[in-house]
Amino acid sequence: MNEVVKKERSNLYLNSEIKEKAKRILSHYGLSLSDAVNIFLAQVVLENGIPFKVRIPNKETLKVMEETVKGKNLEEASLEELVLEAESRVKTKKT
């Protein structure tokens, strides 16, 4: 049996640039912005709170993020190299 879901119109003030970027991403999943907001709100109810960690970057992380945007301190690496490095770090932590 199909449940009828009551819907209502809501007005939200959104950052227009983020909204447009999100809409492009969501379209790849066949979702509208309205669908995504409904999914988010359903998860808020299920989790009884925000369904992900909200973090404020520390000074070091902000510095690295700024440098990355400016193209500083970057090095090329293949996926294989990254996997090997990650595996090596996991092995080191186990011992």
UniProtKB/TrEMBL annotation:
The UniProt record lists the keyword Signal: no
A Pfam family per the record: RelB
Family: Belongs to the RelB/DinJ antitoxin family.
InterPro entries recorded: Arc_rbn_hlx_hlx, RelB/DinJ
UniProt KW 4Fe-4S keyword: no
Keywords: Toxin-antitoxin system
Organism of derivation: Desulfurobacterium pacificum
Protein name as annotated: DNA-damage-inducible protein J
